[in-house]
């Protein structure tokens, strides 16, 4: 049995450790082994190390983290026919059952029996990852795993929310995006590709606003205290028909509600604080708050088409797998622009 | 110029007063004068007298209240052709412009230039009411204005919310209704007529629960402290796909959220307290809060079809217009079952 | 290896023959073996014997027919966890891959790699049937396999079309159903359960019209030559917003189009003749023709809920498996009311 | 009373004639008089002269033709408040009642009491046109009436169909456009603005295909006899999810059906021949035929936003009103690229 390098959680409030473990093999009929080309380093990984997920997942230590993965199919289970060894793939973050009502409806994110590699089982900070036939999306020849790995979770979440938001948007509508960071940055590109609405981006960081304008936003608003007024001015005093909030903390939601038009949709993506709104305001303006979790397998397929077309791009900073600690440290210190990627 | 009796607000924190005023006449081309057959007495009327609407509407006293009206067309403006004198009608509570984007989209409740007779101009506690061509819905011969007047606002609100809720309901879904009072009672009947879902009704009052079961609810839950557990038990531990909250106060929303399944819709109709929910919960369960205001003109047309068919009925207590104070007092004292109606 | 009785096609234009074959066993991880409780005898089975499907399916003779099956789980493959031996199930007519875009979207009927037991592989005129984990729907204790087997295909087709038709139906709308035979009969019950529209049923057979009225149709029209005029009269001269055509031959479509209102939906379910309509008529009335194939797995789950509730019932004539020829003969001679069912 | 020049139909199979008539004035409360800035010359105008519309409209001769109009508000009726003299407007081709069910639902094209200036009453080949408050859409300062007049009908029709088609299009889908002439040319630009789908344009004319590629089509197919094969090749052998047929004659529909994927939508816009398809094919592939008439008032508002943004442009050839005969002759002789516009 051959072995591989893997970066594991060995204890909470401790550093990750590089170790040698057995290369995973297909044991179930629908297993797929992916040779990792890139694994995204996510803020959630920091939270895992802080123990924030310990109780919820009950995952047994040590285990390999990493939930944003892409690479090449290395081996498949006996029943897998739609991918073969060597196929270039991105990995949907969930392993889903395919049989519950949610899975049968294309809404596999709400699978009643799902697994989340990198969170509750071995993930992709390694040379190989075990996932399932239902989780791999073949990608275009033009795309490189290490370039698009971060679209597997962060990008997918942004796609899902933006695509839901886009459904009701017409050329006359305005869509406010709060937060032009990692997710917001993808969300803006997706909104641009999927909807004809005017896009207004709000961020505290003038550079983020500048970037937003460069990738397709129609208006940029620096959140300097007058952001509500600015948005109202840009929307004829009415507010926007749709708002996508990639922040969800620091007062964003209270301000966001003021930027929303009657009958408007408030998409909650970022989180941290409470939505705390009088029911009378919800009723009298007839507004909606729409939750958004990560995207489905279909969402990921669609996002990959946009990526192949160059309609969605993401800045990445690549690190050798052995340099995992530097990547973690840089992320923690706010030194990463875009997304850090580990490449084995 | 002939005159009529009208019950008016003459001052806040004072009793209403009966007075003689001129019978309204069509002055604009789309005006319609309705001879009142029934005017619903609504809790909002009590709030008007308490001055709660004074600042918001800036209505000048004295003025005639009453915003739930039905009767017969008495006179029409020069451009009105779709109704004629003698037509039996129910009156949509709003006068809308017909030209703004909302009106042009069938969403006339969000008209940018609307008027609300009984709230911000003369209403229907009188012998005649001035409304507009866009507000009158011709009703079936089998219906009597005094029987269905309360469907004009209370019923319309319940219809609107229930019809929106019904859109996603399939035979496999459950819909929880919180509150089987005036609105909830209509909402249950509408859900029954429009959707194949299982209906679970929650109310503190055992008699209201009993009534709910009699008019079509599949399960009744008396809110005795164990209502969340009871609903979870009735839904396989998952909660309901859809919930319509006709209460919105006294802790209903916090409990309601616990009765909601992942991906569920929480329809806010009743109001009083705040929706106060962590964004992390909205995101991780991917739930939605849907605001519901009063229904559109189309909603009222549809409700009238259900009423004509006997699919929606409402208990009413009728009072002569001269006995308006008794109706107000009985409502205030909780002595009305269903809806009090003034009949001139 | 134990054996079972099975009724097989041994040659086209020949009688079916009873034979002894091996009881199927799970070989793939997702295989499910169902002990047959009832197998519906369908007009398609007659067409198979006439060789109409020979070229299309290239099925090798001899093989066991029967594509409307229900029974009990007898054995499962290694990866099956959601059903266990003894579970009472109805069998979706298709075995689908679960991995193509259609399957991942809940639209498994358009699976790119499906198999159709009873048509292109061994079916259910037998004691046991081999199907897949993705094809079995657990049914309510109150339902008996031999009572509901015919809902697996005929009923499912009717459900699918009626449920699609119901989506746009409001209380003000009318839905014309052409054909109150086997499928139409189910379709009417489904429309009644799922929509508040007025249902107008058209059939040549006065008894079928009578039955339609008994199970929920609001109006019955005997197609005696004046059916278009009768429908127009029942719809204020405008025609119906939606029409579901379970006939599709003998001039039904040309007449159906005349019964359709501007902006109306014409659902094609029955087939035989051509839709032959000037594009100018399609454009100037802005009408739609909507194709309908058999229903999805989700559709079958929903139909089973209606069946368990008694909202959809079907008349059946039961035959012992050994009497298969009598069932075939009775069907061919038009002596079956409802559906013939073989019970092993 | 002052007079104006107007070009009128004086008899069928005769030339149009320039004459002096009274300038129209507002007589009804919602009348709007528009000073014409541009009036599109449409193939329908040729058909009117050939008498093709005579029986259908029963319009009394002489009357002024021209149904694609834009200009400035010159006078308004007593009840008009949303536009004032001097406003730059495009004119929706229909005058609608605002009160029937279709109008109340935003679907005003199916108004039960509409009028069609230029077809059944005086149109816009003149200095002034009488229309209604419900028909004028204020346009952006950057747009000139003579540049965008042809969007009032031809452009609006293309927008309506393309916007309906776009609703189901995702990044993975393909949309075939048959016909890249006047309407198709607009349709392609609208599809590009509203959807992320891959656009495949089919036309007999290589220059039209070249133009289509220049304005956003992803693939161009010259219809040289192999067009079905070419489209199948571009779509992995499956056909396209959606097809918009701006031709509808000369065999386009039979070929179009072969280019359509299972579950596909065939949008009928152009007309001439019959849709003639076996019901078995509609059922077994579960395809839909979707009719498309002209767009609604809301559609026109949305199209004007795209036009103001430069996302939809149209080539025009301008003629002085006095040169109307030259414009008609050039159109008839196929000498117009884009659209001929009369400017008073």
Short descriptors:
homotetramer, 344 residues, alpha/beta, Rossmann fold, globular
The sequence of SSEs of chain A as H and E is EEEHHEEEHEEHHEHEHEHEHEEHEHEHE
What structural category characterises the helix and strand content of chain A? alpha/beta
Biggest interface:
A-B, 36 and 36 residues
The percentage of residues in β strands of chain A lies in: 25-35%
Multimeric state: homotetramer
Total strand count of chain A, please? Answer: 17
Look at the structure and give the CATH class of the largest domain in chain A.
Answer: Alpha Beta
The whole-angstrom Rg of chain A is 20 Å
The largest β sheet of chain A comes out as:
7 strands, mixed
Residue windows where pLDDT falls under 50 for at least 5 positions of chain A: none
Number of domains of chain A: 2
**CATH fold field value of the largest domain in chain A:** Quinone Oxidoreductase, Chain A, domain 1
Averaged pLDDT of chain A, please? 96
Distance between the termini of chain A: 20 Å
Named CATH architecture of the largest domain in chain A: Alpha-Beta Complex
Helical element count of chain A? 12
| Fraction in helix of chain A | 25-40%
Q: What would the principal axes of the Cα set say about the shape of chain A?
A: globular
Q: Brief overview, please?
A:
The first copy, chain A, is 28% helix and 28% strand.
Explain this structure.
The structure is a homotetramer of 344-residue chains. Chain A folds into 2 domains: 3-153 and 294-343, Alpha-Beta Complex (Quinone Oxidoreductase, Chain A, domain 1); 158-291, 3-Layer(aba) Sandwich (Rossmann fold), CATH 3.40.50.720. The model of chain A has no long low-confidence stretch (mean pLDDT 96). The first copy, chain A, has helices at residues 43-49, 54-57, 101-104, 145-148, 154-166, 182-194, 206-214, 227-234, 252-258, 279-285, 297-308, 324-332; strands at 3-9, 17-22, 31-41, 63-64, 69-76, 88-91, 128-132, 136-138, 174-178, 198-203, 219-222, 240-245, 260-268, 274-278, 288-291, 316-320, 339-343. Chain A has 344 residues and is of the alpha/beta class. In chain A, a hairpin with a 7-residue loop joins strand 1 (3-9) and strand 2 (17-22). Chain A has 12 helices and 17 strands. The interface between A and D is medium-sized, with 15 and 14 residues. Strand 14 of chain A pairs antiparallel with strand 14 of chain B.
């Amino acid at each position: 049995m051959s072995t591989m390098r893997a970066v594991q959680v060995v204890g909470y409030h401790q550093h990750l450790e590089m170790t040698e473990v057995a290369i995973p093999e297909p044991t179930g009929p629908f297993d797929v082994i992916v040779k990792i080309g890139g694994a995204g380093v996510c803020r959630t990984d920091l939270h895992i190390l802080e123990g924030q997920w310990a109780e919820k997942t009950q995952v047994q230590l040590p285990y390999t983290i990493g939930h944003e993965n892409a690479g090449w199919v290395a081996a498949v289970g006996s029943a897998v026919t739609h991918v073969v060894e060597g196929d270039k793939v991105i990995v949907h973050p969930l392993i889903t059952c395919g049989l519950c009502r949610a899975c049968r409806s294309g809404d596999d994110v709400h699978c009643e029996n799902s697994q989340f590699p990198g969170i509750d089982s071995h993930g992709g900070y390694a040379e190989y990852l075990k996932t399932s036939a239902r989780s791999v999306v073949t990608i275009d020849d033009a795309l490189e795993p290490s370039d698009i790995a971060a679209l597997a979770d962060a990008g997918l979440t942004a796609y899902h929310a933006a695509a839901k938001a886009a459904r009701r948007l017409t050329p006359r509508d305005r869509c406010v995006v709060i937060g032009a960071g990692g997710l917001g940055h993808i969300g803006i590109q997706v909104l641009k590709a999927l909807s004809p609405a005017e896009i207004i981006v709000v961020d505290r960081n003038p550079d983020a606003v500048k970037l937003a304008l460069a990738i397709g936003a129609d208006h940029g608003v620096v959140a300097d205290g007058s952001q509500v007024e600015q948005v109202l001015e840009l929307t004829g005093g009415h507010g926007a028909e749709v708002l996508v909030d990639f922040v969800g903390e620091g007062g964003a939601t209270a301000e966001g509600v003021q930027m929303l038009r009657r009958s408007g949709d408030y998409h909650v993506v970022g989180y941290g604080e409470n939505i705390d709104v009088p029911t009378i305001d919800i009723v009298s303006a007839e507004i909606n708050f729409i939750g958004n979790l990560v995207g489905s397998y279909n969402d990921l397929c669609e996002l990959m088409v946009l990526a192949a077309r160059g309609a969605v791009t993401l800045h990445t900073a690549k690190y050798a797998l052995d340099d995992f600690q530097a990547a973690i440290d840089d992320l923690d210190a706010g030194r990463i622009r875009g997304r850090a990627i580990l490449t084995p």
